[in-house]
Each structure stands twice: as structure tokens, then as C-alpha cells.
Amino acid sequence: MVQGISTGPAVPRGMLIADAWAGLGDAVAPLSNASGRPLARTVKLLLDPLVLRPTMNPRFAGGLIDVEHVDELRRTILEAGPALAATAAWFRLVKQARRRAGVTEGNPQDRYFQRCFELAHTHGDPAALPDAAAIAAETVADVHAERGDVTVDRLRRFMTDPDQVVRLAGLLHHAWADRPDPQPLSPDGLTAFLDTCAHRPDERLWKALAEKEVGTAEAAELDRPRVARDYGLTAKAAPAPPELGDRASKRRLPPPFDRSIMERLFAAFTAVFQRETMADIPSMVVGEIHRSAAPWQLADEPSRVAMALGRDATTGIDHRTDTTPASDANARLQARYSREAYVHAVLRRPDPESASVPEDLKHEILHVQAPYLRRLWARLHGRELRGETTAAADVWDLLDGVFRSVLLDQRDRLRRILEKDGGRT
Amino acid sequence: MTELHITRARDIIHAATEPTPERPHPERTALVEARGALLHWDILNRDPHPTAEIHDPDLAADWLWDIYGPETAAAILDTTGPVTTQWASPVLDAARRLAHLRWAEAWWPSSHAAAVPALNIGLLRAEAAWRTAGIEHLLDDDQAVERALADTDLTALEALADDPARHELAAALEDLADDYGVELRRRPAQLSREDWALAASGHHPVDFALASGGTLVDWAQVPQGLVDAAAGATWTLTQRESGLAVTVTVPAAPEARDLDLTARIATVEIPLRLDPDTGHFTGEAEAPQTFLLLPANQRELRVHSPDFVKHPTEPADAPHRAALIEYARTRLTDPVASLAERTA
Hints:
Largest interface: A-B, 61 and 74 residues
Protein name (chain B): DUF4132 domain-containing protein
Largest sheet of chain A: 2 strands, antiparallel
Strand content of chain B: 15-25%
Helix content of chain A: 55-70%
Organism (chain B): Glycomyces rutgersensis
Shape of chain A: globular
Strand order of the largest sheet of chain B: 7-8-9-12-11-10-13
Shape of chain B: globular
Order of helices and strands of chain A: EHHEHHHHHHHHHHHHHHHHH
Strand order of the largest sheet of chain A: 1-2
Structural class of chain A: mainly alpha
Oligomer: heterodimer
Number of domains of chain B: 3
Distance between the termini of chain B: 32 Å
């Protein structure tokens, strides 16, 4: 695959990486896919953040690499070869340990790739290590303990402790009573950001949107009758203070603004998260109470700006494609929605308006902004709890990724409708 | 060698195997949704390379070389006019096979009349999961492998007679499930499929037929695997003691599911139910006396599945259907076809 490399002034990054990767041989097979290319998550979790680091090395960023940097990129990957080989060996051991421990939750690549890279740096190749299996088992136990029932159980105990309930209810009451009147702001800068975020995300513009509190200003409309309901964020005519709540289940969560404090935290606990970056339970609960009374019911201004951007990017999306897009991001999401209709026809999915499709699903397919904003809110909420910041460069991935995930879920639900018998096997 | 015609329209770059960048009819389209582009193959034109509809060239540049070769990929992104490619790669092969499996899941023309047996959906999906894993690095859906594995049921593979390919596939899927943390399903094995040759032999005594006619069922109006892809729907008008009645019969596909159909002729709507004894969907409804006076073009029969479409639409001309049925038959004995096709 090297023959094309020197023909132009720039070379596709994916081709360079695949080429260098092939040079690492079988030792990295556990990090490769069935065609021998590095797994998508190998690139996302290992090569990009830990080896190539395009944010620090802009010459390794973007879809095309200048010919003058080609050799350096290849060398960087080859030099990381021993570390990657050791990472792969650790991943194999950790997977075995995971199986022995009976852990089935989550994607092992997401959960262990970076841990294995750390192990590779601390211990080197596990083959030379007598207690490698024990270290792998410990890693699995560590990652597992950071999650799951232990934390949910502590949350439940804390929130049902009678003394706490009184105190927390008081906090919730005051947080909502003290909500400032939101000040709507006129010209916004949102559209300017949406016009460039997919390809040339403007960090200064992004920071300015947060500094001017554009997200907060844009939340003002949510208190008007039916606005938040039309956005799918509540089933009520207007947002009301949530309950503290004493139970939660993963199924049938109400819309975000109608979730109890307990449900909000529970939903985030059961999604992917890293316990070490999260606060302790009492401060999380208090934080969640204040968050519920904040604009968009989110704590950080960049999250609120992202909600306003998501709203604007999905306004007017529907089956008619002749409407003039309000921004580049809006046009891109509309194009994705139109492609989806074509994909439905190719995959022979039932018409969303046919008799077998339940009303709620039909409504969500035809009015996709509501499920979109619900999911966007949940993602932003999770990021806040994990203390993740959102940079300008992350915004489009977030906006587009949420839309894709909403459409794919709808597609799966449509398919299952005609498989009530579970499909023929 | 594949010739590709490159055109740029609005924000889309087309690299098309046909001179015009038109999408083929959904019934003959095998599709892969890649990052920044749709790739589609026309089932009836056997080009190894797909047509690409590139909506994000920056994203597509990352992997396009793996489908068309580096030089052709660069030309697609930078120039117009025809280019050619002879590129072969495991990635291209996996992409094409995945697209084909998804086509078969949606459009496989199972038919008693044309002797095209139903495919085993479990097997199809198992193979699709494996092919998905071969191109996960270029797919739009970053959870595509997890999604495909969640649909995979090893029962179908394990029930298969001793085919060396099945052991390999089952082992590969177990490994894959381990890599992605998905638990593969296992359902109790189902009885072997009914003998499709026998089920085709239902016969229908018709007495006092005053008028009759027939039509082919439009594939786009029914889900896959419900109606015999090759046989026609027929109607007959009979005189009953109470008055006129229209009877409609639609041959079911091999191993058809138990969903209902609706037939419409003139103003008469006839609900159809599957009769497992005859392997036909049948139904009868009263017809007005004026029915006999209608000109022939107003007595056209339309059949649709109300669970699948809202309203029946005018059937489009679909001359490619016979070719697709013929194609499916060749796949049954083609050694490079999927396991599901070869073992049907």
C-alpha cells in the first residue's frame, strides 16, 4: 500500500497509520480488526491521545499528512511498537481475567485499552513477569469496583436517610425559589459557530459564547408554556422542580427535566463513567439539586451553549429537503436525516406511519428534535458529572454523534417491530 | 477493472460505476454506511467496486484508498472524469460481503414458485457481524460491531451440519464478542424448516367464477419473507347465495411469518390471513353488484402489509425482479456466496 505515498503533496492519514501498523506485525493483533487495520478504538484511545497526540503535534492532525511529515509519523508509530505490543499482551491477559471474574458489563476496549497502555509502561511486556496474571486480575477488579451496584446502593442509602431527606428537600426548594430571571440576549453568534464547527471549529468563538453566557440567555424561552415540552425535555407544560426520588430504574426514564434527582444521578452512574473523576456522593447530590435549578438544568456554561447549538442545528429538520438550511451544521444534520430515509428504503424497514409502528416511535421519527435534545442533554449531563470539559473541536462530534445515535436506535426499533417472534433463526 | 465516473454536485462527490450518478432501485442495492460516504453496489451489475457518494471528503480520505486503491482514491477526491481501478483488499472484500448480506436480509426473494428457499436469518446475521468487524474502522456507526453482535445468535450456526466454515465463524464470533463485551444469544434450536416444495402444492377449488385476474405483489409493499417473491396474487369473483364475493389468494414465501395482508380491488378491501395448511394468504369479502360493470383497469388488485406500509402505492415497474430471483438462485450453489446462501 506504500506505492501511492509519494505521489502527491499529502497522504491520507489512515493509509499512513495502516502502513506503519502493518510493520508492527502479529504482536499488535489484539488491537487490530479482522482486516488487520488498527481498531477504531485503537486509534481513538491509544494512537491519537497517547502516541501521535495531534493536539500537541498539529502536523499529525487532519485527514491528510504533508509528505514532509510522513516519515516522522511512521517512525513515531514504529517507536511505540514495543509499548503497543506490550499493551496488546496486557489486553489479552486482562480479557482472560475479566472472563474468570465473570465481568460482562461494558466494552473491554473502552474500559481497558488505556489501562493496558499504563501497565505496559509500568511493567513492560507481561510475558517476562511472573505475577502478570495477578496484576491483570487486580486491574479488572479495580475498574469493576469503580462502577456499578456499590455506588448506586450508596446513593440510594444516602438519599433515603430521613435526616438527609429533610435537608435535601430544603435545598431543592431554595435552589428553585432563588432562580434568577433569565435575561434573553439578542444577537447570538450561535449560527456563526454552527457554520464552521464541523471543519474549522473556532476556539475563540466557542469561548466567547460561553463568556457571554449565550447558553444561559437561550434558556430563557424554556419557562414559556410548552417550549421545553416541544423540545422533548419535559412532559409538562413548563418545567417544574424535580422530586428528590427514592428509586430509579434504567427502563422507562422520564424526560430529563421530569427525572428525580435520584434518577438523574442513577442514569449517569449506569452509563460509562470513571469514578475517580467524580465527586463523592453527598456533594454529587447537592450539586445535582443546584444543577436542576440552573439554565437548561445543566451546571456549566459550555454545556448550555451546546444545548442551544443542538437546538438550532436540529430546527426544521424533516422529510422535505427543500428548506434552506440555517447553518452548515443544520445542513449536515438534514443531509444525514435524508440519507437515513434512503437507508430505510434500502434496508426495507417498515414505513414509520404503518399500523405496526407505535405512536410514540412514529412521533419521534417525524419530530426528531425532541429525542435529539433529550439525548444531547443526557450526554452533556454525563460529561459534567465526569468533569469533562468540552473544547470547540469536540462540539461537532457531539452534535453529530448524538444525531446518529438517535437515528440508529430508531432504525433498530423499526426493525424489531416486525420481529415480534424474535425473527426466524 | 472497474470504471468510475466522477461528478460533483452540490456538496456530494459521486464516484459511480454507471455513467449517471443515480442510486439503483432499493431492491437491488447493497449498501455500506461509511464515515463520510455511502458505498453501494448494484446487485445486478457485478462490479467488485462500489459507487461512492462522498458527503465528507476529509473523513472519507482516511479509508477511501482501502476501497479503490491510493491513486484512484486520490483522483476521486481531486479530479473529475473517469478513472479506473483494479484494487483488491481484504477491506474491500469485507465491505462488499457485508453489503451483500444486508441486501439478502432485506430483499432475498424467497419463493416456492421460483424454488428459492428462505435464508436462515441467524446465519446471515452471524456472518454480517463478522464482516462488520472487518471494516469497523471505516463505518459511520462507531458501535456497529456491538450492534451486529447483539443481533447474533449462535444457535443457527451450531445447528448447522458439519461445515468447516461454521466452526471457524463460530470461534471468530466468540472471540469478537469477548473483545467487545457482548454476550451472544443462544436460543433453543428450532425445528428444521418446513419443506418448501411441499407447501407450494395447495390447490383452490373455484366455483361459479364470474371474473378473475391476477397481479404480482410489489416487494416494496410487504416485508421480506412474507409473500412468495415470484408468484402472483389472484382474485376471483364468485356468486354466493348472499351476493357477489371476491376471493383473493396470495402464495406465502417459504417459512413465512404470521403477519396479515390487505388486498384491495376497486373499492373492496379484503383482509388476508395465512392458512398454514395451504401456505397461502387468503381472504374473502362481499363485492357490490356494480363490480361486474367495472372496466378491467379499475379491477386491478393491490396487496400490501398494513404493518409495513401506511397506504399501498401504485406499483412501479420492476423489470429487475426476475433478474434478482435468477441471481438468488445462482447464489445457492456459488462457492463464494455466504454460508447462509450456500446452506439454504
